[in-house]
Here is the input.
Amino acid sequence: MDSREVLTRKADGPDAILRYADHSDGLIDVFLPPGTGRPERPSPLVLVIHGGFWREEYDRSHVRPLANALAQRGVVVAVPEYRRVGGLGGWPQTAYDVETALISTPALLDVVVAPGLLDPSTPCTLVGHSAGGHLAMWVGIRAGPERVRSIVALAPVADLEYAARAGMGDGAVQELLGGGPDDVPEHYAEADPARLLPGDVPVTIIQGSDDKQVTVEMNRRLAGQHREVAYVELDEVDHFALIDPLSVAFASTVLPRILTGVRGRVIRTPRESSLI
Here is the structure.
């Protein structure tokens, strides 16, 4: 099966759609656990940031299989859209949208969807894939533990200068930031999550060794430089298996790590940069 099939696979749509900003991309898809009514106790919140190299052609719909899989495990899942390159996005609008969504979502869920569904004061778990992993790390580290319990970054573009110089995504980083590291160094200084580490929020990076979109060398290097990052490398796993609930990688590693983050713990093996 083509691993990219998950991007177009049919999946249940959201239970609710919220608006966090007045532009056309200021929307949040909400996926609720089965049988959600007025819960006896608040449910945990997972905010999922989709990837697509920050480009307009990729929207939040391709992570619906992942969102449904998480909701089936009893968590509330919110998937914000954001302005993207080729549309209204770019730097810093793209990142600021995700930051606004992070701040707004708990209260919107409590007021609009269901009072008592979650405790708005409880930090959420951030999950991001690819470019969404960059945004999850950037937003989550900046927000701190008051808003974010943990960050699970799936094949994230975690070092923007490295990615730009490597030509990752056919110049996607340069498109987002308006130039290369030597052209707009101030944008790289502000936008690069590698420069925000170490932060106060636990970060787990999960990377496939056979990833052709976000190369394994970048995140291996970052993990070597930042020992506080829990790094899990999956042998013979590609870019899209990490967001595919039908994959072995998702079932055996990604899902357990996310749920561990929801519970506020980070699993650490003797050195997580070793291959699994």
